[in-house]
């Protein structure tokens, strides 16, 4: 009997099979990816106006921000007014039950707010809200 083959046989017997551990790791990875909560943001920080009648909106997935300089932001992208309806339609198709939340800066113009609301209605969205700060 060859001494090297006996040592090789002993080494093969003592190896740890990592396949079950890798299976568990991949299953955990898939679990965390599926259960993760993805937060959508409009793309800019706005100073929202205060309102006494403010309440929390639970089902919102399309956030649109209006800056004081007249820019419209959706998903961290500056969207021209001409492409607003198409962008909202695409996002509405991804989640038909979602609502549109307009985060208008307190110094933004009401004309922009009306443009965004009209584009959302034209895209088929019926649940539209304007984000505010609750008064204390």
Along the chain, the helix and strand elements come as HHEEEEHEHEE
**What is the 3D shape?**
elongated
Over all CA atoms, what is the radius of gyration?
Answer: 26 Å
Helix residue percentage: 25-40%
Distance between the termini: 87 Å
**Mean pLDDT over all positions:** 77
Structural class: alpha/beta
Question: Brief overview, please?
Answer:
This is Biopolymer transport protein ExbD. The protein is α/β, with parallel strands linked by helices and 136 residues long. 39% of the residues lie in helices and 16% in strands.
Q: What does this molecule look like?
A:
It is found in: Cell membrane. There is one protein chain. With 136 residues, the chain is α/β, with parallel strands linked by helices. It has two domains: 3-35; 50-134, Nucleotidyltransferase, domain 5 (2-Layer Sandwich), CATH 3.30.420.270. It has helices spanning 3-14, 19-35, 84-94, 110-122; strands at 50-51, 62-66, 72-74, 77-78, 100-104, 128-130, 133-134. The strands form two sheets. Strands 4-3-2-5-6 form a five-stranded mixed beta sheet, covered by helices on one side. A hairpin with a 2-residue loop joins strand 3 (72-74) and strand 4. The longest helix has 17 residues, at 19-35. The model has no long low-confidence stretch (mean pLDDT 77).
Task: Compile the SSE list and pairings.
Blueprint: H1 3-14, H2 19-35, E1 50-51, E2 62-66, E3 72-74, E4 77-78, H3 84-94, E5 100-104, H4 110-122, E6 128-130, E7 133-134
Parallel strand pairs: 1-7, 2-5, 5-6
Antiparallel strand pairs: 2-3, 3-4
Helix pairs in contact: 3-4
């Amino acid at each position: 009997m060859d001494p090297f083959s006996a040592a090789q046989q002993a080494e093969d017997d003592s190896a740890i099979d990592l396949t079950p551990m890798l299976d568990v790791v991949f299953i955990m990875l898939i679990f965390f990816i599926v259960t993760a909560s993805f937060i959508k943001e409009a793309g800019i920080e706005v100073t929202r106006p205060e309102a006494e009648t403010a309440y929390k909106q639970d089902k919102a997935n399309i956030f649109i921000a209006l800056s004081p300089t007249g820019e419209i932001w959706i998903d961290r992208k500056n969207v021209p007014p001409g492409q607003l309806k198409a962008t909202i339609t695409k996002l509405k198709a991804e989640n038909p039950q979602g609502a549109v939340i307009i985060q208008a800066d307190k110094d933004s113009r009401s004309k922009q707010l009306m443009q965004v609301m009209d584009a959302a209605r034209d895209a088929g969205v019926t649940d539209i809200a304007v984000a505010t700060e609750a008064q204390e």
